[in-house]
Amino acid sequence: MLTAFLQDVRYGVRTLAKQPGFTLAAVLTLALGIGANTAIFSVVNAVLLRPLPFDDPEQIMQVWATNTEEGDNDLVVSVPDFLDWQHQNRSFEQLAAYSSTSFILNGAGEPERVRGAKVSASFFPLLRVQPVAGRILTPEDDRVGGERVALVGHGLWQRRFAGDPRLIGQTVRLNDESYRVIGIMPPGFNFPVRKVGGADIWVPHAFDPNASMSKRSSSYLGVLGRLKRGVTREQVQADMESITRVLAEQFPATNRTRGAYVVPLREQLVEKARPMLLILLGAVSFVLLIACINVANLLLARASARHKEMSIRSALGATRARLIRQFLTESVLLGLLGGVAGLLLAAWGLRLLVALAPPEITHISEISLDRNVLAWTFALSVLTGLLFGLAPAIKSSRLGVAESLKENAHGATAGRERGRLRSLLIVGEVALSLVLLVGAGLLLKSLWRLQNVEAGFTTDNVLTMTLSLPQYRFPDVERQRAFHARVVERLQNIPGVGAAGMTTILPLSGISEASDFQVVGRQLGKGWPSLNTRAVSPDYLRAIGIQLLKGRSLTERDDRNAPPVCLVNGWMARRVFEGEDPIGRRIKTGGVEWEIVGVVGDVKHRALSGEPDFEMYVPYTQYPFVSNMTYVLRTGLDPAAVVASARAAIGAVDPEQVVDNVQTMDQVLLKSIAQPRFNTFLLSLFAAVALLIASVGLYGTLSYMVAQRTHEIGVRVALGARVDDVVRLVVGQGMKLVLAGVAAGAVGAFVASRVLSGFLFEVSPTDVWTFAAAPLLLMLVALVACYAPARHAAKVDPLVALRYE
Fold first, then answer.
1. Alpha-carbon separation of residue 254 from 217, 259, 622 (angstroms)
2. Which DSSP symbol is given to 548?
3. Which residue of 243, 548, 685, 690 has the fewest C-beta atoms within 10 A of its own C-beta?
4. How confident is the model at residue 360 (pLDDT cuts 50, 70, 90)?
5. How many contiguous H segments (helices) and E segments (strands) does the chain have?
6. What are phi and psi of 599, to 5 degrees?
7. How far apart are CA 89 and CA 348, in angstroms?
8. Could you give the CA distance from residue 422 to residue 295 in angstroms, rounded to a whole number?
9. Among positive and negative, which fits the CA dihedral 131, 133, 138, 144?
10. Please, what is the end-to-end C-alpha distance for the chain in angstroms?
11. Is the pLDDT at 184 greater than 70, yes or no?
């Protein structure tokens, strides 16, 4: 059997080498399909399939607080609740807490803001992660008054400290305080993963149980738990619900509506990315299927020319099974060649995917062509070869010797049954292409609608940058306000800057500071949205381009000695003060009564999709939390031209300040729609590739048909058929197949569009224009593909055609 197999392989290689044009066309077609599948599977493998780099990762759970009245199930946890959970639960081996933060790293170069995390001593033992050098935190480290210690991430160690092994035991300056480095974490470890990346430095949280019990209403902790052996998710959920019920009875003021929700950490990290990645994997599978259909058509055409060879082999004793095996060997060789070429395309495509991927897709930077991906590609190549080679192999081995020779004698190399199969394959190609085109069209229209949403501000020539004042240098709010005032004054004097302002929260940042509110002198009742507060400087509205609709704007006179005043957005004014003038009314939130002095336009602060929030703008001079501010500069120049001047202006006030997130508002806008742009780009790319492959397949099929019907066409021309008649004959035959494929594809697209409904913005899954435009585009491309073979048929010389056989 091995000898026979090797003989088949050698013969298959010689056969493919004799027809380099056919081989190249088939390999390139397969490379497109296999390469696209390999690239997307690499992402799926890294994000969805690759186990977390911890021991027994399936035992690690994320534990959230919940609000049983509002239905929120992903809320952070207060310190007292965490300590109670830790002491009272019976289902976890360990429970650990963490909170994301940032540090200003001084010394060893320029000051730098680094991402960090405060963690409990049980954090690293729970994850079962050991440093590459040094040690992890101990309970002695994690206590109030203990020595300040830190663990450094591998990337920061290499970049900032040049991988110096002597860093262990030395001190680093974080927020102007000394921390002794006790460990270097392994490469790739950056948990907890945040939207903008993981941590670079970990320090102990050092909870004070006695002092923290009064802070049960202040929540900021993420909580992890490792299940005990044999404990199920349902059991631990019941255990945590029992604990939260007891706490609700003990502390009704803070815990009456508070529960707990347990979810596997893996599921928590990938839940947002999973649906679209699976859709993209399904879409790219359609592309591969279309490629297989195309190559199957090529093999059917090629097999027709090998009838005499098959007849002779059969006459010499070759069984039908042996003939099928020979065909499948050749098709698998094509599949493997396509797989190798596809790997090269995938390696290039992965760099593009990493560059385009939104931050919501965790571990996207870790995708690679690892052994799992290579095994997938190999299996896919073999399976693909069997898939597109099976039908041609069976068809070509079915005819007997006499019948095959008889067909050759009559010049009917294809045969009616084989022609019907090729036509059916073309119909399938067109149908699958239409499904992808409709999906891409829906996402394109959705993205276009999203990009044309009125955001409530202008982005042209607007530069933004963030400054976070460290508490150790600016311990009180008055110093913070004074510093920001000096910076804004200098920014306003930069040549080319028309307006400069600042805000605690930038539009489209996805951040909110929401709280309950009341209208003084009026009973609102329950069910109203929370009120989002933004502290701004007087010139902020002009700098960002927010329109004042009514009343007055904030001024320099609205300082800490003046009565508290605010602006509200139009959405809130229309709903809360329907039919009334909101100017002069008072809103109470956070224990302060604010007088409404103006109404401004609605701004999309969280996302372009969805309704606006209830928003209130207050003077930063009257707001108690202004350590973190984002400066906004409207320029008459390219914003990049004033970056250096802006940094210099801030440095003139305080050279030790670290400026972060320097970006234009155009960049902020693009980042806010990164996920839909990524989805739309990939699905549109797959649809374009599918359309290209299908049109090439249609062209090839019609060209082959014309070549086989040269005698018939010559007779028609000799009997008086005009050029237009021949063109209509060939084009009509091709377009009949296309119309059949469009009809089948429309049904498939109608079903598939329902899967995309959750990713569409202001677009119906059955959008009439998309369902009309996609078939028209497909038929237009198909018409072009049909026209070239038709023109070739019309040029047939009758004398040559009649002598054809």
1. 6, 11, 28
2. E
3. 548
4. low
5. 25, 24
6. -120, 130
7. 50
8. 11
9. negative
10. 41
11. yes
What is the 8-class DSSP label of residue 45?
I
- Residue 564: CB atoms within 10 A of its CB come to 16
CB 98 within 8 A of CB 79: no
Those residues whose C-beta lies under 8 Å from the C-beta of residue 527, and which sit 6 or more positions away, are none
For residues 414-438, one letter each, b for 16 or more C-beta atoms within 10 angstroms of the residue's C-beta and e for the rest, the string is: bbeebbebbbebbbbbbbbbbbbbb
| Two tokens, residue 408 | 């050759």
**720 with 802: CB under 8 angstroms?**
no
Biggest CA pair distance of the chain: 107
Q: Where are the beta strands (DSSP E) in 469-584?
A: 497-503, 514-515, 518-519, 531-536, 548-551, 565-569
What is the rounded CA–CA span in Å between residue 694 and residue 197?
A: 41
Tokens in use for 586?
């008072």
- Cβ atoms within 10 Å, residue 370: 14
Spell out the alpha helix ranges (H) of 46-88.
79-88
Pairing of strands 177-184, 548-551: unpaired
User: Would residue 152 be called left, alpha or beta, if left means φ above 0 and alpha means ψ between -120 and 50 degrees?
Assistant: beta
At 216, which amino acid appears? R
- Rounded Cα distance between 549 and 371, Å, is 60
The span from the CA of 120 to the CA of 204, in Å, is: 6
3-state secondary structure (DSSP) of residue 152: strand
Nearest to 695 by CA among 748, 740, 735: 735
DSSP per-residue letters across 631-656: EEEEESS-GGGGHHHHHHHHHHH-TT
Neighbour count for residue 23 (Cβ, 10 Å): 18
- In one-letter notation, the amino acid at residue 291 is A
Radius of gyration of the chain (CA): 34
Q: Report how far residue 681's alpha carbon sits from residue 675's, in angstroms, rounded to the nearest whole number.
A: 10
200 neighbors 115 (Cβ within 8 angstroms): yes
Let me know: does 802 contact 718? Beta carbons within 8 Å: yes
Mean pLDDT in residue range 619-638: 91
Question: SS3 of 144, please?
Answer: coil
Question: Residues 115-136, buried b or exposed e (16+ Cβ, 10 A)?
Answer: bbbbbbbbbbbbbebebebbeb
In 3D, which of 538, 459, 485, 499 has the Cα closest to residue 633?
Answer: 499
Token pair, residue 362, equals: 């965790």
Q: Rounded to the nearest 5 degrees, what angle is found at the Cα of 148, between the Cα atoms of 146 and 153?
A: 135
- For the chain, the helix, strand and coil percentages under 3-state DSSP, each to the nearest 5: 55, 20, 30
Q: Which of 412, 413, 416 is nearest to 424 (CA)?
A: 416
Query: Which stretch of 206-220, 246-260, 670-684, 690-704 has the lowest confidence by average pLDDT?
Result: 206-220
Q: What is the mean pLDDT of the chain?
A: 83
- Looking up tokens 């229209």 gives 445
Of 9-18, 438-447, 467-476, which one has max mean pLDDT? 438-447
The tens digit of pLDDT for each residue in 52-98 reads: 888 888 899 999 998 887 777 788 898 889 999 999 999 999 999 99
* Interior angle at CA 678, CA 672 and CA 682, nearest 5: 165
Amino acid (one-letter) located at 430: V
Is 618 within 8 Å of 597 (Cβ atoms)? Answer: no
768 C-beta neighbours (distance < 10 Å), count: 8
The string of pLDDT tens digits covering residues 749-791 is 998 888 888 888 888 988 899 999 999 998 888 888 887 777 7
Kindly report the pTM of this predicted structure: 0.78
